[in-house]
Structure to design on (264 residues):
């Protein structure tokens, strides 16, 4: 409990967690409003073209619940990962980690506590934000454009409770990456570029890339959240969750081994 108290004080006594929380709220709810307004404008344009006897060419954008919470599961979780990585790399940067490990000789408990505190708080925050994002997207889209925004069915509810699960796992991954790299710039660059850029590049490699895509970790996480991404999956959404959990467990386990063997 002493480790928990110490890590809680570190987390709540600095400004960065509070600013990150504000950023997560703004991104999650703001993007939900943008999606709702965009879908409403898309439907109005589609109806106007039909009324004028024109061929719209494409169907209007009618967002699903997974689209509405995309700001939370996408950009919001990315900010949470940055916060989790900085919670580790900042201590290495300023040399505080030596004092921490002197006070807590069992080093793996420090990493587990960091991941648990930030992960649980992030999971609670993102869970609440998913309902807020749903409500805002539904209100801004209107009844017609928001017809698919309903809290009914397993897929819709998975888009709600899946986000906090994803957030918790991403925090554990970020703490592990921060512990392995020890540098803020390197850890943040890897955590941002991997889901946003690197995994999307595999689709450019033809057949080989398409065969690799079902085994990419963040692609599996998004599959669990309700996005198939045009990938020929070998398993369902829950299989993708198990795959992502296994990936995070391997990286976190490696971080625990390294942090106990390497000098602070």
């Amino acid at each position: 409990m002493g480790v928990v108290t110490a890590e809680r004080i570190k987390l709540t006594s600095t400004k960065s967690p509070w600013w990150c929380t504000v950023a997560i709220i703004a991104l999650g709810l703001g993007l939900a409003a943008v999606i709702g307004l965009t879908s409403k404008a898309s439907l109005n344009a589609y109806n106007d073209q039909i009324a004028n006897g024109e061929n719209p060419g494409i169907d209007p954008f009618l967002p699903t619940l997974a689209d509405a919470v995309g700001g939370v599961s996408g950009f919001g979780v990315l900010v949470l990962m940055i916060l989790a990585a900085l919670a580790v790399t900042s201590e290495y940067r300023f040399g505080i980690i030596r004092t921490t490990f002197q006070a807590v000789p069992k080093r793996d408990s420090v990493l587990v506590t960091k991941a648990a505190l930030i992960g649980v708080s992030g999971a609670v925050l993102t869970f609440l934000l998913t309902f807020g994002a749903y409500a805002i997207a539904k209100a801004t889209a209107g009844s017609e454009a928001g017809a698919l925004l309903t809290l009914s069915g397993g897929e819709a509810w998975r888009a709600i409770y899946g986000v906090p699960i994803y957030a918790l796992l991403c925090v554990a991954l970020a703490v592990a990456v921060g512990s392995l790299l020890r540098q803020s710039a390197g850890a943040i660059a890897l955590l941002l570029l991997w889901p946003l850029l690197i995994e999307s590049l595999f689709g450019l490699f033809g057949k080989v890339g398409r065969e690799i895509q079902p085994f990419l970790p963040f692609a599996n996480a998004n599959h669990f959240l309700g996005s198939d991404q045009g990938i020929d999956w070998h398993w369902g959404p829950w299989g993708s969750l198990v795959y992502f959990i296994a990936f995070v467990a391997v990286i976190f386990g490696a971080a625990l081994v390294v942090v106990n063997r390497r000098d602070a």
Remarks:
- The chain has a mean pLDDT of 87.
- The radius of gyration is 21 Å.
- The first helix runs from residue 2 to 12.
